[in-house]
Write a structure and sequence with these properties.
Distance between the termini of chain A: 37 Å
CATH architecture of the domain at 146-454 in chain B: Alpha-Beta Barrel
Radius of gyration of chain B: 22 Å
Helix content of chain B: 40-55%
Largest sheet of chain B: 9 strands, parallel
Oligomer: heterodimer
CATH superfamily of chain A: Ethanolamine ammonia-lyase light chain (EutC)
CATH class of chain A: Alpha Beta
Number of strands of chain B: 17
Number of helices of chain B: 21
Structural class of chain A: alpha/beta
Largest sheet of chain A: 6 strands, mixed
Order of helices and strands of chain A: HHHEHEHEHEEEHH
Largest interface: A-B, 39 and 45 residues
Structural class of chain B: alpha/beta
Shape of chain A: globular
Shape of chain B: globular
Number of domains of chain A: 1
CATH class of the domain at 146-454 in chain B: Alpha Beta
Helix content of chain A: 25-40%
Number of helices of chain A: 8
Strand content of chain B: 5-15%
Chain lengths: 247, 462
Amino acid sequence: MSAPVDDPWARLRSRTSARIGLGRSGAGLPVRANLEFQFAHARARDAVHRAVDFEALAKDLVPMETLTVDSAAPDRATYLRRPDLGRQLAESSEATLATALPCDVLFVVADGLSADAVQAHAAPVVRATLPLLDGLALGPVVLARQARVAFGDVIGHRLAAKLVVLLVGERPGLTVTDSLGAYITHAPEPGRRDSERNCISNIHPGGGQSYEAAARKIAWLGRQGLERGVTGIALKDDLPATQTLPE
Amino acid sequence: MRHLRTTIGGERFTFDSLNQVMACATPLRSGDQLAGIAAESAAQRVAAQAVLADLPLTHFLTEALVPYESDEVTRLILDSHDTAAFAPVQHMTTGQFRDWLLSEEATTEVLAALAPGLTPEMVAATSKLMRNRDLIAVARKIRVTTAFRNTQGLPGRIGSRLQPNHPSDDMQGIAASIVDGLMYGVGDAVIGINPATDSIPNAIALMEMLDEIRLSYDMPVQSCILTHVTNAIEIMDRGAPVDLVFQSIAGTQAANTGFGVDLAVLDEAHEAARALDRGTVGDNVMYFETGQGAALSADAHHGVDQQTLEVRAYAVARRYRPLLVNTVVGFIGPEYLYDGKQIIRAGLEDHFCGKMLGLPMGVDVCYTNHAEADQDDMDVLMTLLADAGATFLIAVPGADDIMLNYQSLAYHDIAYLRESFGLRAAPEFEAWLEGIGLIDGGRLVEGNAPPKALAKMTGDAA
């Protein structure tokens, strides 16, 4: 479905990914433009509703130890309607986290709103980050079904982690359906505000942040957070500009 | 409290408070369920509606849903209530008022005179007794006209916001989206950009670019960079070309605090924008956005349902005689409006309630990818809103906002509504479109290439 060769909009299209110069059938969209839109929306819907294969993800993370838990939202329909349940641990998962495993850094992988992002990018981001956290004590990677960002606070608190790195599937757009986000929270406990986290968003290979770039930022924020005992707005103020991060 | 009980079909229903009656009477929506205040059964919902129907309109002047002492929006509503304007309907119950609105007695002129006499709570309660068709039938009778460099809200017209957002604010990318929109006759309500980078220098750069385009083509349009009102105040101080001042607002003081605003700062911005005196055919200088669920998401809802709180935001808006008010109906997500049915109902409610309070209501007919909605639902809502007489609608290239990552209407959709229902753009803008050759005899000209007349805008040699 590429543009015609003599596309008069070609130069302008190079400056924006907006759907410009679509042409029209009467006042309607031409069939091809309409199908392209519908396909993009269908892919985004599928990314939201598909389930992450957490067994496969656990295999991707070997030799790291993993634990799989559920949020209190039993299914996708409930998850979408009840953000509060997506931040709580299911009773059936209480036993899995019964014993504290004190550590400096705990990775939590939450499915969030894009199964595609989590399936494809969570393991590579964890793998790219690990060497940069050398010398710190790491907990098991917790894989969380029907879970939101603040779910990491609950898990981190239970396992007595000093800092949580939560990877989550971001809400899919029409252009990118597999974007991963990373949230770094010091001293995780229920009730942490969003202003107490640092966020790295837009992690995906299709023009977003690369695994390596994301890993460098996660490691930098994680180490700074542990050293200074704070994450969020207070830490963000001191984050070096992108170009000064070690490449 | 004797009003707050009813018996229907032999079953007795009792409600503890006016807040509970209002919340239970609201058509089902996920945000009220999330707040734990929705009706527990379909029967309880109708019972609450029956209680509301028997409640005198004057009751809303004596019992506040959000405390007067602790909420400046409540104080604004009650202190500015116009009893003379209210007089013609003051003897009515909410149910009688609903019936009267549908009657031939409630004409365009009568409804215009009535608006200052109505409170948001009266209007919200009435809307809960109305079906979608009723919301359309009454809204259609109401005429709200505002102006800046063109006139919005005239009979037989529908305006549109051209929304040329770009994920990195690339000026040429934005210009390309503007040219595309103008080809469809979009942009009379406002050319408005949500900046990707919310800094003052960036906002000024975008404003200067839009102003240059406007001046070089002598376009009768207004521009807006949707940055925080405190930024706008600073930007006006620096002498940048601000046409409209934007702000998101909500229906409680606490929710507005979450947005970083109060009435004092809005007063200050409004005064500063009016002092610039940049309008040519009118002096409406404010552009507000609202949306059901904003107060709950800020944890500032006081146990009041999201639709009633939304209408309270309109009391804030009307203080400033805005050029445009836009309810961004499906942007907030499925935890507030779950599916197409809820989004459609909310869009019609917001439009009706805003118009009843005398506001130039537009709608961003939109949804996110995690809502149970699609473009078919948007087709239904935009068509109903055109029929209801919406002041303006939002439009983006191909219905896909690549910066905010949600779906709105396409430029094509504005052309569809105008062509299929005989609606037109604002007269000043329509004349400009004719003059520059983008329309001919009121119809879009043929051809898909960027128009030569606008070549300068996109950096092409003319």
